[in-house]
Amino acid sequence: MKRFIYKAKDTKTGKNVKGSIQAENERTAGKLLIEQGYMPTLVTEESAEGFLQKMRNKVSAKDRIVFTRQFSTLIGAGLPLSNSLRTVADQTESKPMKSVIENILASVEAGKSLGVAFSQHPDVFDNVYLSLIDAGEMSGTLDDSLRRLAEQQERDAEIMSKIRGAMTYPMIVLMVIFGVIIFMMIVVVPQVENLYKDLGQELPTLTLIMVALANFLINFWWLIILLGGGTVWLLLQFRKTDVGTKFFARLKLHVPMFNGMFRRLYMARFARTAQILLATGVPMLDTLRIAGNAMNNVIVNEQIQEVMTKVKAGKSLSSSLKERDYILPLVPQMASIGEESGKVDEMLGKSAQVYEDELDEKIRTLSTMIEPLLMVVMAVLVGGIVGAILFPIYSLVNSV
Q1: Which residue in 43, 63, 256, 287 has the fewest CB atoms around it within 10 Å?
Q2: Which domain holds residue 2?
């Protein structure tokens, strides 16, 4: 699908409008605009965007959450669909989100269902979002579906914010360590070498190693940048392959210190997503398929798809979830209780809450463990370099 920029006249109001639309080609884009009640005057393919332009036009998670919450409130208050969308569009300050809402409004006014209108923006609304919109539209509980969506997105955003926050301090400390090492290697170590040369003395072995590294850094910095950039590029390309995707997915589940955090994150996300989908009337098989895709981890997704196959064959959800490497025990236990009481969605919601609480504790523990570990790393690295600089100076002083 290509994106086209258009200018058109609204046949109902006579107003001139402009925006963007996705279509296979320019002709199809023109037909879609006519179906939506516009008379196109200009339709051109959007030029390839640079990185900064893409970032500028990207809809943020916060904008999506605010839109969902406002839309839910207006629908719940009894406003018609078109009026609700128009009101939210008028109140939205984010230009990318405003453009998306206006396109959805145009599609709805052209007679398309809300689910179809939302599905035209897959880069903004994922499968979970679209499924809940469809379920809410069919069951007449759209406001409730949107409210649940907003709550889920807020929980996800809060969890990811905590994880990023826990990683921010280590990254800053590592950058400081790296900066100090580079400064000492480039500025201080060569001065020690020159001092020994002037005095005709031989450098100690440790200092010789530091000098060799410093000279390599000074003379071949471009090679280091080239190799570093090439390695990053190769890793990014590898990650796009099926093998690379599975490798990094498995790495998250097994890397020391972080594996427990990621496993709880995926279980909380699975249980919470399944709870919301089941509560809004989405069938069990569709729930498992959508919840698996929402994991953002192909290994966990594969196990959930295996669960779906067993459920399709007639087995219960709880028995199908048992004895899976990456599905933590509480989920099948709570699912079993839910099957007995007829409240599977509620029990999955409770297990999600447990894992979310455990994840919070895990993040706090991890932050506490990382800080002293980084201090030790800094002491060893910087201490080694300082030792390589100070030992020869002390040797010179003692020899005088």
Answers
A1: 256
A2: 1-48
Residue 287 lies in a domain: yes
| Maximal C-alpha separation, the chain | 96
Q: Which residues pair with 38 in a beta bridge?
A: 10
> Taking the model in full, what pTM does it have?
0.71
User: Mean pLDDT across the stretch 261-290?
Assistant: 87
Q: Are the beta carbons of 271 and 359 closer than 8 angstroms?
A: no
117: amino acid identity, one letter: A
Flag whether pLDDT at 391 surpasses 80.
Answer: no
Among positive and negative, which fits the CA dihedral 347, 352, 355, 361? negative
Q: How many CB atoms lie within 10 A of CB 220?
A: 12
Q: How are the residues of the chain apportioned to helix, strand and coil, as percentages rounded to the nearest 5?
A: 75, 5, 20
Residue 254 CA to residue 191 CA, distance in Å, equals: 45
One-letter amino acid identity for 240? K
Q: Among 325, 272, 281, 275, which residue's Cα sits nearest to residue 303?
A: 325
Q: Map residue 21 onto helix, strand or coil.
A: strand
Q: Is the pLDDT of residue 48 over 50?
A: no
